[in-house]
Design goal:
mainly beta, Immunoglobulin-like, globular
């Protein structure tokens, strides 16, 4: 009886612990220069924003000011999402499993909001800061 309990209990504890670990979304991945890490840098730095059922991953991007870059918005959720930023003049509707590439012109230093139009209250922030 004890052996059966142990064989069933420990895998469940392991699964519960893994489920409680949050994605690295709460802590943006920053490089040594203080900027978000691009997913690719072949000519134009490209940053990934994933949308998952009312969650933006990462909720904050830090990019160099006065630099052209690209955003890839990817919907990994189970319902449609809409990436939108009035300040950046970007808007893309994404069905489940879809992704969209958006080119962003060089920005002045400052803070720019983005959000999921289909999930009220789900906001992100893009911070453009000068290189030091």
């Amino acid at each position: 009886m004890k052996t059966t309990f142990t064989r069933l209990f420990f895998p469940l504890v392991t699964l519960a612990a893994a489920a409680s670990v949050t994605w690295a979304a709460d802590v943006p991945a920053l490089g040594p220069d203080g900027f978000s890490l691009p997913m690719s840098d072949s000519g134009v730095p490209t940053y990934l924003i994933e949308m998952k059922d009312g969650q933006l991953i990462p909720p904050q991007l830090v990019v160099p000011a006065k630099t052209r870059f690209r955003i890839v918005a990817r919907n990994i959720g189970s319902k449609p999402a809409e990436f939108e930023s009035n300040q950046l003049r970007l808007e893309k509707v994404l069905f489940m499993g879809a992704e969209a590439y958006m080119n962003v012109t060089p920005l002045d230093a400052g803070s720019y909001d983005y959000f999921d139009e289909f999930s009220p209250g789900v906001d992100g922030k893009l911070i453009a800061k000068p290189r030091s």
